[in-house]
Amino acid sequence: MKRGVIRNALATGVAGVLAMGVAAALSSSAGAAASTLGEAAAQSGRYFGAAVAANHLGESQYVTVLNREFNSVTPENEMKWDATEPSRGSFSFGNADRIVSHAQGRGMKIRGHTLVWHSQLPGWVSGLSSANDVRSAMNNHINQVMGHYRGKIHSWDVVNEAFQDGSSGARRQSVFQQRLGDGYIEEAFRTARAADSGAKLCYNDYNIDDANAAKTRAVYNMVRDFKSRGVPIDCVGLQSHFNSQSPVPSNYQQNIQQFAALGVDVQITELDIEGSGSAQADNYRRVVQACLAVSRCTGITVWGIPDHYSWRSSGTPLLFDRNYNKKPAYDAVLAALNGSTGNPPGGGDPTTPPGESCTATISAGQQWSDRFNLSVAVSGTSNWVVTVRVQSPQKVIATWNGSPTWDSSGNVMTMRPNGNGNTFGFTIQHNGNWNWPSVSCAVG
Ligand code: G3I
Fold first, then answer.
1. Is pLDDT at 119 greater than 50 in this prediction?
2. Which of 133, 310, 371, 440 could form a disulfide with 304 if both were Cys (CB 3.0 to 4.6 A apart)?
3. Is the CB of 86 under 6 A from ligand 1?
4. Residue 15 in contact with residue 311, Cβ under 8 Å?
5. Which positions carry the signal peptide feature in this UniProt record (predicted)?
């Protein structure tokens, strides 16, 4: 089939056992559902982290939950400029070191947060008046802080919140932007790569969760420009602070996908969602499922552990209440993470009960020079299992609204419902082959 020739194809349900060697490409282990967030995320090769404050590391409940549930940490404030270089050339790493050694002792990943940011910036930096001075202060800060932690940090938020809110799409007017122009961002990333070539280098921001928002488009364009010119950037951090004024966007997954399609990882870096009960749980579930659906969404960090330590404590935005009880949001996140493993290898092959059948209809979505989207609508049952066979050298690089597993070749995707209805979609990187995959449906 050639691009544009076939608009619609039908595949009807296959009764009986589908013979498939289901080995989950997104899954490194399988079996019983994991009982903690970190373990559940690790099943699909992802991490699940929390922002941690050094001054709570002496509290036994806090540390118990941190150690049990999370396999990544982000120092909430301790690696920021005001903490690490309060006066020029004088570095203090005590509190950050405490978090790093706690994490290292338990095999947790560490996200470095953050090197260049307009906020929590000591007065001496804001007061610098010449471009040369700002340049040398910025580069020295990156070199010293990254050098101190070289080899220990999984990902660094190299530049944080550098874009204005609203419709301008402009860079924020910080001392860095005002003295050095927009090019300071690129310079910071280049300096960072040289300072620790083993760390992933992220651009991190809030209000870039909606795929179409002006601020998102501006960051997207910057990342695309960096990738096209070889400026070293490895990841985009979606902070993802949500509440009723700033809800989880309906296109959140599409947004993750569009950044991933630029060739960077996406990390959800500061997740918190104000609310309570099942409404909050539903929102958390949506965020986690969106990340799981995009293979380059590599991990999720919640911005704190119990509600009362959150920067937005009155909105109770976290997964544990003030007594460290698991909230419904916790249960939803854990279930979603466990759902990502789908069908375990060697077991659970789908069968269609006699007399029941389903239909999968495939249709075209957006297309670009290197890839195209397709969607599959299923009718006849809500308990479906759809097998999608792509043709080598094609690769499925993203999926949405379904829970995928893969055979060992990576060419056969088995899709099951993930609670988002009976239509799922995926992106094929065509590598020169524009043919559509075959699809078949069975009742699960
Ligand atoms: O440590 C001092 C303490 O000695 C003093 O008595 C007290 C009085 O106000 O302040 C304490 O410092 C506070 C610090 O948190 C530690 O608790 C600061 O005032 C307070 O401003 C600071 O807030 C942090 C905020 O960043 C600053 O912008 C929050 O904890 C932290 O969660 C928040 O995190 C940011 C991310 O870095 C970037 N994205 C947004 C996110 C939420 O605002």
1. yes
2. 310
3. no
4. no
5. 1-32
